[in-house]
Design a protein that fits this description.
The chain is built from six helices and five strands, in the order βββαβααβααα. By secondary structure, the chain is of the alpha/beta class. Strand 1 and strand 2 form a beta hairpin. This is DUF659 domain-containing protein.
């Protein structure tokens, strides 16, 4: 698809995430193909090394070289979160990628990550950040309760009471 004559440019978006204590690196590509904007989730790769700039850059460039070895000639945009590893001016992943491509690259800071920062900051301002600590502790308790039920192979007949009590507690904090 990327080698098709209608595709003259592409954009990459990358992000890291953790699932069950395993670090993954996601890579997305956007291309304008035959009159349509196409968003492709290329890969979610497990990362076994540290989440360093060079490890991520090497992983992206090796993957893209294997997928389409002329990617350097069509990349015009790169979107990431605002982690220093990704966007560092002198040694960030995007900086390394920009150095090895043919055209100037538009660097974009991912909108969902911007919203996430605002939501985190707002939540930390509720009750002097005690709300975040309470909600985290309570969610850990609920998860552990489910694990206990599974390990005992017994269902609590009043399991829904947790949500009733959470509702009462939230009403109290209101």
């Amino acid at each position: 698809m990327v080698d098709h004559e209608s595709v003259w440019a592409m954009s990459l978006a990358s992000d890291g995430s953790t699932h069950r204590d395993q670090l993954f690196f996601d890579l997305h590509m956007r291309v304008y193909y035959c009159g349509n904007l196409v968003n492709l989730h290329l890969v979610a790769m497990p990362m076994f090394e540290r989440h360093t700039t060079l490890n991520i850059f090497n992983m992206i460039s090796k993957f893209m070289d294997a997928l389409y070895n002329k990617w350097h000639t069509k990349l015009i945009g790169m979107s990431t979160d605002n982690e220093n590893t990704m966007t560092g001016r002198h040694a960030g992943v995007v900086t390394h990628i920009v150095a090895c491509v043919k055209h100037k690259v538009l660097r974009m800071w991912c909108v969902p990550h911007q919203i996430n920062i605002i939501v985190k900051a707002s939540a930390e301002n509720i009750n002097g950040s005690s709300w975040v600590k309470f909600a985290y502790t309570f969610l850990v308790y609920l998860r552990m309760h489910d694990i206990l039920i599974i390990s005992m192979n017994v269902k609590c007949p009043k399991k829904t009471n947790h949500w009733v009590h959470l509702g009462r507690l939230l009403a109290f904090y209101k």
